[in-house]
Design brief:
The structure holds 2 protein chains of 2 kinds.
Chain A: H1 3-16, H2 34-51, H3 61-65
Chain B: H1 3-18, E1 23-28, E2 37-41, E3 50-51, E4 71-75, H2 77-88, E5 97-101, H3 110-116, E6 122-128, E7 131-136, E8 140-144, H4 151-154, E9 166-167, H5 180-183, H6 192-203, H7 211-215, H8 240-253, H9 263-267, H10 275-289
Parallel strand pairs in B: 1-4, 4-5, 5-9
Antiparallel strand pairs in B: 1-2, 1-3, 6-7, 7-8
The chains are: A mainly alpha, B alpha/beta.
Chain lengths: 66, 315
């Protein structure tokens, strides 16, 4: 089983229902590519920070308890 | 009784009499109108309960899973495609199933008929050529069949069984007249906020009865992710994120396997249109990987492979 096609379909589905593009991210990084991992993580964090906190599909446990 | 029902009963009776099969899986009149129910005929006499109407909306392929003995099964286009899928996924052995191929005239949507009569009690619905005759306690109305067809039957492209041992009746036109590309993934043209609003609107009434999962011939895991407690993949509450997560994952599990048989929508007690979600995946699989599920026994499942020139999302 391969992640490649699965991820394309999943990302497309999530964006289709209104999860903002840029919140879901996928990359190929080997265990030997520390620099690439660092750069990618940085990029993802920056990108998500720009979008702000998620408002969709967020479970508020306080609401549930009430 | 229509002609196809008569032929079906006759062949079912013969198959059971000869001992070719142990059981014939088909549809019988339901206890309420517009809800034909799955039926298992074990004796030649029981074969006389089988029917073939416009309300045969359950996907019978579901009942072949984990079944012993040799079974005959009534299979229109979509059902036969799901049987092909189950054979490919090693859930059903070809030699244990005797497929009675059918031509689907396009099945009817009980929700649509009921909505037309605004909650008035319907006692009986008969079909006569291109019309349906709806009877209640104090009314009777003749209506065009076309108006009440299920959405997925409009855009169907394989109305005849794709795999069968014998065909009951005549093969008919393959398509329902509609073009799937005009209706699939209806929210694609909207922006992100509008998409979310549509998504919420579509699924907000879900009561998590899991009827959509239970009728689906693709859902045969021993323990479904929604029933699993350890680990618990998705919350069991009626809190919106839990409900939505269930529907997103249910749809995704059907990726590259869904034949758009519409059983989920037909089974839903509150009339949720889950095809708005599944049609997006079906479209992606068709356009990105040039694949339509269940058409033959050879082509491998699209999500079990990749090609170097596949469209990519990384980076």
């Amino acid at each position: 089983m391969f992640a490649r096609r699965r991820f394309v379909v999943l990302k497309d589905l999530l964006e289709y229902i209104g999860i903002e593009p840029g919140r879901v991210f996928f990359s190929w990084i080997s265990s030997a590519e520390a620099t690439k991992f660092q750069a990618t993580a940085k990029k993802v964090v920056e990108q998500v920070r720009e979008l702000g906190p998620a408002t969709r599909l967020v479970k508020d446990i306080r609401k549930e308890a009430a | 009784m229509n002609d196809i029902t008569r032929q079906l009963r006759e062949r079912a009776r013969q198959l059971l009499q000869e001992g070719t099969v142990d059981c014939v899986i088909g549809y019988a009149q339901g206890s309420v109108p517009m809800q034909e129910q799955p039926f298992f005929a074990y004796t030649p006499e029981e074969a006389d309960k089988l029917v073939w109407t416009g309300f045969c909306t359950n996907n019978l392929a579901n009942f072949l899973i984990k079944r012993s003995g040799k079974n005959a099964i009534v299979a229109q286009g979509c059902v036969s495609r799901n049987i092909v899928g189950l054979i490919k996924e090693n859930q059903v052995q070809r030699e244990n199933v005797y497929i009675l191929g059918m031509h689907s005239p396009g099945m009817l949507d009980a929700h649509k008929v009921q909505n037309h009569f605004h909650g008035r009690t319907i006692v009986q619905v008969e079909e006569e050529g291109q019309d349906i005759i709806v009877k209640g306690m104090d009314f009777e109305e003749r209506l065009p069949r076309k108006k009440f067809k299920r959405d997925n039957c409009f855009t169907c492209t394989h109305r005849n069984a794709v795999l069968y041992d014998e065909f009951i009746g005549q093969e008919g036109p393959q398509t329902g007249g509609g073009n799937i590309d005009n209706v699939a993934a209806p929210w694609e043209k909207l922006d992100s906020d509008e998409r979310w609003a549509e998504f919420e609107e579509t699924f907000k009434d879900c009561i998590r009865c899991y009827a959509c999962r239970n009728v689906c011939p693709l859902c045969y895991c021993d323990v479904c992710f929604v029933d699993e407690n350890n680990p618990q993949w998705v919350g069991k509450s009626l809190h919106e994120p839990d409900v939505y997560t269930f529907h997103i994952l249910r749809a995704f599990h059907c990726a590259g396997r869904c034949t758009d048989c519409g059983a989920c929508e037909s089974a839903c007690p509150v009339g949720i249109k889950m095809r708005r979600l599944t049609s997006k995946i079906e479209k992606d699989i068709r356009q990105l990987y040039d694949y339509q599920p269940g058409l033959d026994l050879e082509t491998p499942a699209p999500l079990s492979l990749y090609r170097p020139n596949d469209p990519d999302v990384a980076e």
